């Protein structure tokens, strides 16, 4: 499988939240990533997808919220969040102007 396809399979979507916007000022970007991906794979995927140099990757597993559908109670799936710190002078254009 080509590396470009693997990169887009690991990174699900960028997270655009208030906290993520504050972290952007510190040169950190937040992504939802595949639950099975490790830090090295996430680093490689971000470097390939956005052509930047990554310094560190912090990950955390987020628990899915409980939801109700009438009398039935269900749970949203768990997901993984990655906070990626870029090298000084690097930035991802995708997040500019959001």
- The main sheet orders its strands as 1-2-6-3
CATH architecture annotation? 2-Layer Sandwich
Residue share in helix:
25-40%
Distance between the termini: 33 Å
For this structure, the CATH topology is: Alpha-Beta Plaits
Biggest sheet layout:
4 strands, antiparallel
Q: Structural class of the secondary elements?
A: alpha+beta
**How many distinct beta strands?**
6
User: Could you list the spans in which at least 5 consecutive residues all have pLDDT below 50?
Assistant: none
Whole-number mean pLDDT: 90
Percent strand equals 35-45%
CATH class: Alpha Beta
Write the layout of secondary structure elements.
Layout: H1 3-10, E1 11-14, H2 18-24, E2 28-33, H3 39-50, E3 54-62, E4 66-69, E5 72-75, E6 79-86
Descriptive notes:
Helix content is 28%, strand content 36%. The protein has 98 residues and is an alpha+beta fold. The protein has one domain (3-87): Alpha-Beta Plaits (2-Layer Sandwich). A four-stranded antiparallel beta sheet has the order 1-2-6-3, sandwiched between helices. The mean pLDDT is 90.
């Amino acid at each position: 499988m080509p590396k470009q396809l693997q990169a887009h399979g690991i990174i699900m979507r960028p997270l655009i939240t208030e906290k993520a916007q504050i972290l952007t000022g510190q040169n950190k970007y937040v992504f939802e990533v595949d639950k099975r991906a490790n830090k090295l794979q996430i680093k490689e995927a971000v470097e390939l997808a956005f052509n930047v140099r990554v310094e560190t990757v912090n990950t955390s597993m987020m628990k899915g919220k409980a939801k109700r559908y009438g009398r039935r109670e269900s749970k949203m799936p768990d997901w993984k969040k990655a906070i990626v710190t870029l090298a000084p002078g690097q930035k991802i254009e995708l997040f500019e102007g959001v």
